[in-house]
Amino acid sequence: MSINISLPGEGGSSAELSYAYGSGPFLLSYQTLEENNWDYSWESQMNISGSISTSFGGDQAMEMTFEESPWVTTWSTTEEGDASFELVSVPAGDFDGALRLRQQADITMNLGMQGSPFSTEFTSLAHQRFVPEVGLVKTESLESGMSMDGMDFPTGFDQKSATVLVEFNGLSP
């Protein structure tokens, strides 16, 4: 899977990233979760390659190059049994029986900036709600952080945010 992004504005930014499957499932089957009374955890990994370029004012620019940077996600149900499910209200409607999953993402960014290689760690924690036969209806970002050589840096993502399903037209025959 590849993604290309261009952001308008002063200086501008662009990204050209590709994601390659590493290991593990993204989401387990309903049957697997049900057999374990909805009490389960697993891990998946993707690898990121590509670059992000940003210009600042006149002649200042920064380019970060990702070189097979591992993106490890640890998934787990947040409760056991019936407590794993909840009612979720989003603009697309009210969905009863949404499974709430905890998602912790740890990304080791093997970067190159102005010819100098370095690594940095980015972590994030989110809750995701999935509804059978609908899919992902809500992602709630809870926290994130970044560190390099033992120093912590603000990410600008300190505020909680949510991405929600806006419209759902039902299942296609």
Walk me through this protein's architecture.
The longest helix is centred in the N-terminal third of the chain and has 6 residues, at 30-35. Strands 1, 2, 3, 4, 5, 6, 7, 8, 9 and 10 form a ten-stranded antiparallel beta sheet that branches. By secondary structure, the protein is mainly beta. Strand 1 and strand 2 (13-23) form a beta hairpin. It has one domain (26-49, 66-164). The chain has one helix at residues 30-35, and strands at residues 2-7, 13-23, 41-56, 60-77, 85-90, 93-113, 116-131, 135-148, 151-153, 161-164.
Distance between the amino and carboxyl termini: 27 Å
The rounded Rg comes to: 19 Å
Largest sheet: 10 strands, antiparallel
Number of domains: 1
H/E series, N to C?
EEHEEEEEEEE
Provide the helix percentage.
under 10%
Approximate strand percentage: over 45%
Unreliable segments (pLDDT under 50, ≥5 consecutive)? none
Mean pLDDT: 82
Query: How many helix segments?
Result: 1
Q: Specify the overall morphology.
A: elongated
- Structural class by helix and strand composition: mainly beta
Number of strands: 10
Reconstruct the topology from this structure.
Blueprint: E1 2-7, E2 13-23, H1 30-35, E3 41-56, E4 60-77, E5 85-90, E6 93-113, E7 116-131, E8 135-148, E9 151-153, E10 161-164
Antiparallel strand pairs: 1-2, 2-3, 3-4, 4-6, 5-6, 6-7, 7-8, 8-9, 8-10
